Every structure is written in C-alpha cells, then in structure tokens.
Amino acid sequence: xAHFALVGPSEARRPRLGRPVGGSRTSAVxxxxxxxxxxxPVSGRRASxxxxxxxxxxxxxLVRAGRAEGLVAHVVRYRxxxxxxxxxxxxxxxxxxxxxTVRRYGDVPVCLVGHGLGARAALRTxxxxxxxxxxxxxxxxxxxxMAAEPEPVRQLVGRRVLLVxxxxxxxxxxxxxxxxxxxxxxxxxxxxxxxxxxxGHALRQYAAEVRALxxxxxxxxxxxxxxxxxxxxxxxxxxxxxxxMPLAAGFGxxxxx
Length: 257
Fold this sequence. Notes:
Distance between the termini: 72 Å
Order of helices and strands: EHEHEHEEHEHHE
Number of helices: 6
Helix content: 25-40%
Radius of gyration: 18 Å
Structural class: alpha/beta
Largest sheet: 7 strands, parallel
Mean pLDDT: 92
C-alpha cells in the first residue's frame, strides 16, 4: 500500500517577488519598496489575487514618483493568504522577500508597505538590516491578551514608521493600531500615525490623499527627500498628538515642505 506525505497548501508553494511593477529595469536601482497585500487571520487557501491587485495602483504611483532615483517596486506573492497563529506565514514570506531583494539588488535601502495583515507582516519584518522604513496601512493587529506575548516593537528601532488607519474601519480596529503605535513610539521616536476620518479598511474614500502621503513618506525615507510638514510635525509631536494626526482632504495637491 502506498504512503503519501501530507503537505499543507502553503508548504507546497513558494513566495515570489514577481516582475517589477512598471516593467523591467535598465538603469541603476536606488531603492526598493516591497508591497505586502492583505490576508486572512486563519486560512489554508491560495493567496488572494484580489488583494494582490489592490496594491498595484499604489505600487505604480510610487514607481512614477521615484523614477528619478531608480525606485523599484514589487508586490509580494505569498504562498497562501493565512497568518495562521504562531506560524505567522505572511511574515515569513515577507522576510523571504527582503532577503531575496538583497540577493537580487544588493545593498539598497528597502521600504516595506503593507495593508491589513500585510501591514502586520511589514511591521514584524522590519528588523532586517536592509529595511529602513515601514508604512502600515489599516494594520490588522491582535487584541490585547494577557495570556499571549504582545505584538513586538523592538524590531522597529532605528526605522521610520508610519501607520495610517481609517476611523470607520470595521475589519481592523483603529484603536488597536493606536495602542500599538503608543508602544512603538516609546521604543522608536521615528514613529507616527495618521487617521483618515470616516474612511474604511480599503481607504478608498480618500485614496488620492493616502497615495500622496504614502509617496511623500516612502520617497523621503528611501532617498532623504524633504517630507511634507504634517509628516514632520507628526514625527516630532509627543503622543497622542503625533499618533492621531488627521489626514487632511486634498493632501498632496498643495504640499508645503
């Protein structure tokens, strides 16, 4: 009688960087942004094509804004869509993606940009030496649980960290990201958080402003560009002011540096 090893769906696949967003590169690469799509807390299913596609407009916008500095963007393709408890599958895939980026591009600065559970993966993976900045959009963060270790923040030391959350998000609790940012700020002063009034998990209502804020932060972190005054003020302000910074309507249209 034949015996077959049981292999989980995520174990049978491998994560991938995929092709650079915006086409192949022919010039020198000055920096890399890795975009980490949303996932599910528990799942054995394949990675979501919809979640991957949702990151592409942001990736394209970042590449356009950073073309002069040689910015490359990849939307990471996970093995599966589940975080799955202590397996932390999305964080493991994000860590692989950073290592693969270093192997492929060498010593270039890396920014991690994640949405939902992808944002949790980005924050968890920030300790890699190549990572200098993290943008966490509507991060999925666990409830405070006295029986479990709190979500770590020590890996954020020395990184520039921006969290962005819609106040009407019903999928991921904005208050949990505020509490996380409070703990992170005590460890790493280069942490701030913006609130998008009345927006939901997908941040669609103020998509243009969120993309402008993302580009301002990412290009500032990767290439030492001057950032918009609200970002500077949020980084400098003590809690809770710098962690509840409102994202103003029209941000990006008339930036004042």
